[in-house]
Amino acid sequence: MRDRLLTQHFLQRFLENDLLSPEADRHDAIAMVCGGLLTLGLFLSVLISMKFVFMPFQSPGRTALLALGDRLTFVSIAMVVMALVAVVAWDALSLDPRDTAMFGPLPIASAVIVRAKLRAVGIMAGGFALAISSLSSLFHPLLMVAKLPIGLMTVLALVVIHLTVTLAAGLSAFAAVVMLREVLRALLGAGFNRVSASLQAVLIVALVTSFLLLPAMLNRAARPESGQAMLLPPVWFVGLHEALAGELVAGLPGRALPERIARQEDRAASRYREISTAIRPLKWRAVGALTWPLLIATGAFLWNSRRLPLPLVGHRGGRYRGLGFFPRVLTLTVLRSPPTQAGFFFTLQCLFRSGPHRVVMAGCTAVSIALATVFLAAASRSLAADLQSLPPHALSTQTVVLSVLLAGFRHVTRLPADTRANRLFRLAWIADSRLFLAGVRRGGFAGVVLPAVLLLVPPHLYLLGTRLAVMHAVSGLLLGAALISLITLRTSQLPFVASYAPAPDLNTVGPVVLVGGLIAVSLLARIERFALQDVESTAVFWGVLAMTLLPPAFQGRNMALDLPSAFDVPASGTTRLDLG
Amino acid sequence: MVSSISPPLLEARNLVKRFHGITVVDNVSFVVRPGEVVGYLGPNGSGKTTTGRMLTGLVEPSSGSVVFDGRNVSDDPIAYRRRLGYVPEEPTLYPFLSAREQLRLLGRLRELPSAAMERKITALLELFGMADAAEQSISAYSKGMRQKVLIIAALLHDPDLLIFDEPDSGLDVTTSLVLRHLVHTLAARGKAVLYSSHVIEVVEKLCTRVIVLHRGRIVAQDTVQQLRFLMSHESLEDVFAELVLETNPEQTARDIADVVGGHA
């Protein structure tokens, strides 16, 4: 009973304190996170699986070969998303001093608390893994074999095996992150706190980069049976799937096909068996990739939890050595006024450290990763020798990613960082709104646009070549700055400190924005492709983008941000959070 | 120094606050002069915090006004905030920032020059015994540590008016003593201080004048000595008990002990 109560408490607190704001509507936020994950799964499953439905002469060999690549995508997504879940929940993965403060005085054995925390982490990981894997496990096998002569039990077997493998892959990635964290905690002791945040950031960047590079790597360089591919953990899990599902699809009876299609089918079936034979032995690596991290992570977690962590009262923090090099350079150059500095640093602190803001940005990052995967995979399949024959979607990835991330940025600027703490902010507010907003824009650029564009440079170098990739990145930076400038131009509230959160109105606005956005992205890609042909056109294109940065410079000192409206008066379609 | 002839720095004029028709603060008027420490006493729910929030501009009065240095604060709230320092009752800080980051944010919003602000923050953190924990996330702080950050935040811009709402809540004995001496020193240097507290002994020792609030109304307002004299009591605690207490504390304590011990 106590175990169950404690586990419930840890799960609840995990959602309330570490992922979601205690001030926000928990149900709304949980619905948003779960909805995002399910939508991601549904979107990718249907998008990836629809090709089977539209195949004019679907045959077992070609289906099995195409499904191999699909599985690799699903497994990779499950692994990266689960690893990201673990990295985002980094600080909540083990007991902390708050738990000691809360449960230490109670007559509960430490072992009970530790067990409950471990169980809560396990349930959370299992829940997320299931949310990511369930829809692809259902839709992909069903759509894949919809037109093939196959029995119900075989379809069920395909669904179960797909679910088992993607769950195992996702949990293995989650366990690997927990293992890394707990082993480092055990090795570094108190020193872990000093490297923890940096390690978390490095892991996020590494995960996103490897994920973005995966489609291109698989399509261009790493043949599945090659030595390079054998080192990729997702391939191990595809190998496990092959070992379990084997010839379930490829072994189905064929039907009469036109001669040309029949030849293709023979080649595809032969190629499938070649790859399948090569990767099946990797099943043991997959089993090891799941069990070893799980065992080591659990062992290290229990070792680190021998004693409940002590409260940090009087705890010695890092030694203060003044402003760091980059903040000092920034404050001397582009952030000279104190309100601009406040806006810049507060924006970055909210984006990367505040629970509700991080969740929104993580959700947008997940969506942009999914979209980038699809766009980059499509682009890698249609590489062209010259710019004019380059398909427009090759230049769309960056715009799509920036649009999704900046939509998230626009949303998070409207979320209060902490409704009660905002009172102190309000008391200290004597600043020029224009200067503060300039800092917020620069913070958004540094925290959202710059990392996104830089992370896309490696795949673009690969796909577009050095010159075009660099020019495309410059366009992306200008576009990002322009978009931030536009979304903050007509704000009537101070970012991060207004007491109101926008009410979701996706039903009415969502479809319009989605369709309009897709048209705009496509148009922009075509314009950019035309503009990057020569120096003059490029200069004009960049100049037009740069001109959108000018309007904020002409705004009045306090613009529409009259006090106290900037803090308190609810804008249309907003929900009051702070009633105190 | 205390001066009853110097013009008031802060004036509360007939302040009224109603929440959903319930009057929480009822026609409260008082002044605070430079060099004066005015105690603001009252039981829980008497309207102390609401008065403090109206004085700082965080809550709009239902009627009445707040006048600072001869001008209604609503005429120029920014000029008022430049000269106001406020320590709220709740330790409301951004949990994801460190103490230094929180103070730096507030200092920058107040447009303090960077170099001077950095020096001041470092020195104040050191003096309040917070240097070792200054880079830690506030979410890991005890209540007392948060309270220290709030006090530093209120002093950072050298305000002329300080409003303390239960400032010694959660503070250790040493810091409480430092705070009392600090309030004295600041008043001696011409700052006007409104000091709201539950702790009668602190108010008795610290304040030059006391305002007693009960059910949103001022029931007494004078110097500690005058109140003792007028009500013929030895201590401010007795004065307070007569003005405010509606139950016998000793009897209530015995009743509680009986319930705890299962005798009731």
What report would you give on this structure?
The complex is a heterodimer of chains A (580) and B (264). In chain A, 71% of the residues lie in helices and 1% in strands. Chain A is mostly helical. Chain A folds into 2 domains: 27-254 and 265-304, no CATH class; 332-566, no CATH class. Chain A has a two-stranded antiparallel ribbon with strand order 1-2. In chain A, helix 2 runs parallel beside helix 14. Chain A is globular. With 264 residues, chain B is α/β, with parallel strands linked by helices. Helix content of chain B is 40%, strand content 23%. Chain B has helices at residues 48-56, 77-82, 99-109, 114-127, 143-155, 173-188, 200-206, 224-231, 236-244, 249-260, and strands at 10-19, 22-32, 37-41, 63-68, 71-72, 84-87, 161-165, 192-197, 209-214, 217-222. In chain B, the strands form 2 sheets. A 6-stranded mixed sheet of chain B has the order 6-7-8-3-9-10, sandwiched between helices. In chain B, strands 2-1-4-5 form a 4-stranded antiparallel sheet, with helices on one face. In chain B, helix 3 (99-109) runs antiparallel to helix 4 and helix 3 (99-109) runs parallel beside helix 5. Chain B is globular. The N and C termini of chain B lie far apart (53 Å). Classes of the chains: A mainly alpha (580), B alpha/beta (264). Chains A and B meet through helix 13 and helix 16 of A and helix 2, helix 3, helix 4 and helix 5 of B.
Number of helices, where a helix is a run of at least 4 consecutive DSSP H or I residues of chain A: 20
Strand content of chain B: 15-25%
- Computed Rg of chain B: 19 Å
The quaternary structure here is: heterodimer
